[in-house]
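Input/output pair, single chain:
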Amino acid sequence: MMKAGSGSQLELEQPAVNQSASTPEAIRQALDLYSIVIDNSEDAIYAQDEQGRYLLFNQAACRFMGKTREQVLGKNDQALFPAAQADMLAATNRRIMATGKPETIEGFFSIAGGERYFVVAKRPLRGHDDRIIGTFGIARDITEQKRGEVALKERNEELERFNRASVGRELDMIALKREVNALARELGRPPPYDLSAIDAASGKDPP
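Output:
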């Protein structure tokens, strides 16, 4: 399942693209220096043209996908991801180019190591004249963090179930003690259990 949002803690500045960079090859040349810099990032960083073809793919992205940069550049999402994931990514890119607004999505993606949970911040890629010429983004693998959140949620739910069961057992025990006290009174004996504190806390008058 993918979730979408309008913001992200992931921040990435758009690379400078010359006004003459109007073709995929020219844009790739303009991004060469930027590519060297972003190869030091542990997050996947990429850029795509208006047709969704990859113009930039850093080393972290190559490592996640198990492919070389040469195997990816010029290809689109359909060449890298299962059909449903590729369609979602392509639709997100089209929406960003149409609105000019950044978006953040998160969810499981199929990569070389299997299913991993990513948060992906996407932005419009603009030319020197501010015209949108594609999209770029940064993807961070938060699988272990997500697993920790799921484990914590499961433990909290387990504790809550235990607490409810404990409260239920305690209420059953109190009810049983009341029955024993009532039976003792019918037999003319003193009640064996002192429930005055419980009655006072609940606002009940002691029998």
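Residues 149-202 form one domain. The radius of gyration is 30 Å.
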